[in-house]
Amino acid sequence: MPKWNNWSGKVVAQPKQIRTPASEAELSDLLCETDTTDSPVRALGAAHSHSRLVPTPGTLIDLHGISGVVSVDRSAQLAQIRGGTRISDLGLPLRDEGVALLNQGDIDRQSIGGAIATGTHGTGRSLQNLSAGMQSARLVLPSGEIIECSREIEPDLFEVNRIGLGAAGILSEVSLSVRPAYKLQERLWLEDLDHVLERIDELSRASRHLEFFWMPGGQRAACKALEETEADPVYPLAAEGKRLAWSYEVLANHRPDKHSEMEYSVAEQDGPACVRELRKKITQDFPELTWPIEYRTLAADDAWLSTTQNVPTVTISVHQGADQSDEPLFRACEKIFRKYGGRPHWGKVHFLNQADLSSLYPRWLDWWRIRNQWDPKNRMMNDHLARLRPPLMD
Ligand SMILES: Cc1cc2nc3c(=O)[nH]c(=O)nc-3n(C[C@H](O)[C@H](O)[C@H](O)COP(=O)(O)OP(=O)(O)OC[C@H]3O[C@@H](n4cnc5c(N)ncnc54)[C@H](O)[C@@H]3O)c2cc1C
């Protein structure tokens, strides 16, 4: 049996087989072929999730072969993109068409399908997560059937797949909102953490993208702001914090050090208090921690499983080295996040159960009811999802 592990090496699996279809048609054939043996299947993007979403004892479907930009409609500001495309492979072809993604995460190694499936986001008070930009999708259902969905066509299936956790079909192609290509100028500075927390509202309103990192034990935060600019790009690219280039060249960072991560979204106004409590807890109980807390802003959207559903939020992440035990740290921080009504990132570590999630998401039962309709044999379930599924829905 093949062995599989995620990016950090902390999530491992032994699927019966790993298959790599090279087209939507091959993906459809594969799902039909494996359906006869009734074996479970899970989609694999770039293996960058810290949560146990990907593992399956059945067939792992690696989507990297279903890749590329299909077309761009500049007037409608939409790009048609294959689901397995790495975000790092989008910048140039989109710029050749004069457009760019509205925002990106801290790295660009993820696949677009995997990023959408978990609500992956960057930072920016007026900018939503990548899932919110999906306007329609082509899906391959667990039966192998290929289907299109949008707000107008099969709207329930579309809604469930806006943040679908790879549980209700595989995104073979998505139509994603784009905007005219743009350049960004980066600025990095150190500032007393308490001062940053006092003026975080002002800071986050002043820049298109604003984030800060606080290193345990330190007094100061490293703040990073990105502004749109008409200036010419400067090559070779400067170090992080000083770049001036096209958006995709500045938004993506190099993060080679293997780690695991917990991230929660809390309401914007609760962010500073939550960070102060995390700082106190970490300083008292985890003084040896050498990984930063990261603070970003995220605009609200209306996807059923969005951590920002109808609430402008900030996202706060806690990291631990991949060679360290992370559970005591993450459990202690999760208590604080929970106190602020936080919602966990779907692709990062959390310890919530179905009852906790049901209380956080008003449409939780609806999401599961519709998911179950489109996967009646439960082919796209795994152990992690089974623990999250509401009772009486097995
Ligand atoms: C170093 C690092 C930096 C990160 N930075 C950020 C960040 O800045 N912002 C942020 O929000 N997150 C961040 N993440 C988390 C990451 O963006 C998410 O976990 C994302 O889902 C990973 O994408 P992937 O392609 O690797 O998907 P995978 O981890 O391979 O899969 C994730 C989920 O998507 C499903 N899936 C994959 N492809 C498809 C498809 N085509 N159709 C349907 N379902 C599919 C899988 O079944 C699984 O459920 C980071 C992670 C790492 C390791």
Short description:
Helices cover 26% and strands 27% of the residues.
How would you portray this structure in words?
The protein has 394 residues and is of the alpha+beta class. Helices cover 26% and strands 27% of the residues. The protein folds into three domains: 4-62, Uridine Diphospho-n-acetylenolpyruvylglucosamine Reductase, domain 2 (2-Layer Sandwich), CATH 3.30.43; 69-181, Uridine Diphospho-n-acetylenolpyruvylglucosamine Reductase, domain 3; 183-344, FAD-linked oxidases, C-terminal domain (Vanillyl-alcohol Oxidase, Chain A, domain 3, 3-Layer(aba) Sandwich). The protein has helices spanning 24-35, 91-96, 112-118, 155-162, 193-198, 200-206, 247-251, 271-285, 327-339, 354-360, 364-374, 383-388, and strands spanning 4-5, 12-13, 17-19, 41-44, 59-62, 69-73, 78-82, 99-101, 134-140, 146-150, 170-180, 183-192, 209-214, 220-229, 244-246, 259-267, 293-298, 313-321, 343-344. The strands form four sheets. The protein has an eight-stranded antiparallel beta sheet with strand order 15-12-14-13-17-18-16-19. Strand 6 (69-73) and strand 7 form a beta hairpin. Helix 4 (155-162) crosses helix 11 (364-374). The two termini are 28 Å apart. The model has no long low-confidence stretch (mean pLDDT 97). Bound molecules: flavin-adenine dinucleotide (FAD). Residues 7, 42-49, 53-54, 63, 83, 105-107, 110-111, 113-115, 117-118, 120-121, 164-166, 170-171, 255, 345, 347 line the site of flavin-adenine dinucleotide.
